[in-house]
Specification:
Blueprint lengths: L1 H14 L23 H4 L3 H14 L16 H4 L4 E2 L6 H7 L8 H23 L8 H26 L23 H16 L14 H16 L7 H20 L24 E5 L32 E2 L1 H5 L15 E6 L6 E9 L5 H4 L14 E5 H15 L4 H13 L12 H15 L6 H8 L1 E3 L6 E3 L4 E2 L4 E2 L11 H6 L14
Antiparallel strand pairs: 1-3, 2-6, 4-5, 7-8, 9-10
Helix pairs in contact: 1-3, 3-6, 3-7, 6-7, 7-8, 8-9, 9-10, 9-13, 10-13, 13-14, 13-15
Subcellular location: Cell outer membrane
Keywords: Cell outer membrane, Membrane, Signal
Family: Belongs to the SusD family.
Length: 521
């Protein structure tokens, strides 16, 4: 099944499915010439549904696409956090993000907007067209629609957190559509669609895990828990009711995992977080799928600048490196900071597999593929097929610990979930009785910063909490006024949202005004 779906994805990319125009891959087509196909005539057999869904999955990869020299789209959500800096400084857009002077022309902002709405457009086609395919197995149809609803919900979840009120499009569009130039919908309305989509996906008959990389039930439930957790915080401020919803949904995953520890669990080593053989398994509940026959892993901008850590020798990367302050904020003895055992390395092997050498500083190796790049005495394959994690079971545990604590106080179950993260890091955790609700809250937040760093999660925590980890005090500052040590610049109220892309404002007058604090058109 996995190879069949991978083939669908490969065909989707190689044939360039747009689903808003002609489709030119003849393998799926028997009745009509490819040049005559339209979205209306394409969706006629089950293979068309699978191919269209594969195209939607493939469109998720915009996150790793390039954003100019020495930069990728994913860096948007890292540069703003203050936990990373750059060694290259050759990309003006990336520098603007680090300096908190980005605007509606910044490439990463524009690319994220376009990429997310491309996912939404492709998902809308699947959701609208697949129900009419006859004959088609009902369970297959329900599953495909459920997966598409998850993908649409996830895209909207990212978009609403980045821009606030955004266009809400739930049907395929053409130039003749009434909402071809859509206005911005209230965040409350966007979240309603997100929750509805995830509830449909939850009931779609998905397996708890899926080694092929397709959406699974554990991912859906964790994403739903994350949505509820976000709704409990700013800006919707739903409070206790949604903290409970988040805790209950995360607990469903934890309960299943406890009964099936070989299926869902924490990995025993941090190496497993970035090992090809563990992709889509155990801790990895959902990942972006990469294979060099179609698209290779896009995280190379974490490599140290002009240091020979791969088979390529010295390479000009290093556009995202950890700040010394953030690295040094980890507790003494934290395994996550131990060289070549955790998420940061301070040494590696010359050209990937030669003599060891000191890097001169800690670097992020959380997404480093030893199989592709080489390791001690073993040459790399030069094929970086490593997937990029989107949802890990570690996050499920931390969602539960935080949300359950907010319901009243730290319970034994919340403490146990939190302690599992610290146990893997070989840290001693004070007894449950040593915590108050307030101290446990900040303890969980610190673990989120340290466990989930550099996975495009931290920025969203900063926005929903209106709090930022202070590496100097080990406490949390208010968002507005916090100094990002990567640039010594203070976060402002306007930074809680991104600016709308300038070209979107020019093309669509119904978007009205720019987000507060940013220059208009």
């Amino acid at each position: 099944m996995r190879s069949k779906f991978v083939n669908y994805i490969n065909r989707a990319l190689l044939c360039g499915i747009a689903l808003t125009g002609p489709f030119g891959c003849t393998e799926f087509l028997k009745e009509q010439a490819p040049s005559n196909l339209t979205p209306d005539s394409f969706y006629t057999i089950p293979d068309h549904a699978e191919a269209a869904l594969a195209s939607t999955y493939a469109s998720l990869r915009f996150m790793g696409d390039g954003a100019g020299i020495f930069s990728s789209n994913w860096q948007l959500l890292e540069a703003l956090t203050g936990t990373s800096t750059t060694e290259t400084a050759q990309n003006s857009d990336l520098n603007n993000l680090y300096g908190l002077v980005h605007d509606g022309n910044t490439a990463h902002v524009v690319n994220y907007w376009n990429g997310l709405y491309r996912v939404i457009a492709n998902a809308n086609q699947v959701i609208e067209k697949v129900p009419g395919i006859t004959p088609m197995d009902a369970a297959q149809k329900t599953k495909i629609i459920g997966e598409a609803r998850f993908l649409r919900a996830s895209a909207y979840f990212t978009a609403v957190r980045l821009w606030g009120n955004i266009p809400l499009i739930t049907k395929p569009q053409t130039a003749a559509s009434d909402d071809f130039l859509p206005a911005r919908a209230a965040q409350e309305d966007v979240y309603k669609v997100i929750v509805d989509d995830l509830l449909v996906a939850e009931a779609a008959g998905l397996a708890w895990m899926d080694a092929s990389g397709r959406v699974n039930l554990a991912a859906v439930k964790t994403q739903l828990a994350k949505v509820y957790l976000t709704m409990a915080g700013f800006p919707l401020s739903k409070g206790a009711s949604h903290y409970k919803l988040a805790a209950d949904k995360a607990l469903e995953v934890i309960t299943y995992a406890n009964a099936n520890p070989s299926t869902i669990n924490l990995f025993t080593t941090y190496d497993d977080v970035h090992r090809e053989s563990t992709e889509n398994r155990v801790e990895h509940l959902f990942m972006l799928q990469y294979n060099t026959t179609v698209a290779g892993n896009p995280m190379d901008n974490f490599f140290p600048n002009f240091k020979p850590v791969t088979y390529n020798g010295p390479g000009g990367t290093g556009s995202s490196v950890p700040t010394a302050a953030f690295y040094n904020s980890y507790e003494p003895g934290d395994l996550r900071t131990k060289d070549q055992a955790g998420y940061f390395y301070t040494t590696y092997f010359t050209n990937g597999n030669g003599a060891p050498f000191a890097l001169g500083a800690p670097y992020v190796f959380k997404h480093f593929n030893r199989t592709a790049n080489g390791t001690a005495g073993v040459a790399g394959s030069r094929q970086n097929n490593l997937n990029v994690p989107q949802i890990r079971f570690a996050e499920t545990l931390l969602i539960y610990a935080e949300a359950q604590n907010e319901v009243g106080s730290p319970t034994q179950a919340a403490y146990d979930a939190f302690k599992r993260i610290r146990d893997r890091a070989t840290l001693t955790t004070p007894a449950l009785g040593a915590y108050t609700q307030a101290t446990f809250r900040e303890a969980v937040w610190r673990e989120r910063w340290r466990e989930l760093c550099y996975e495009q999660i931290t920025w969203f925590d900063m926005v929903r909490l209106r709090k930022v980890y202070n590496e100097k005090t080990n406490g949390f500052d208010n968002f507005v006024g916090h100094i990002n040590l990567s640039s010594n610049q203070a976060l402002q109220e306007k930074h809680l949202l991104l600016p709308l892309p300038k070209q979107e404002l020019l093309n669509n007058p119904n978007l009205k005004t720019q987000n507060p604090g940013y220059p208009g058109v």
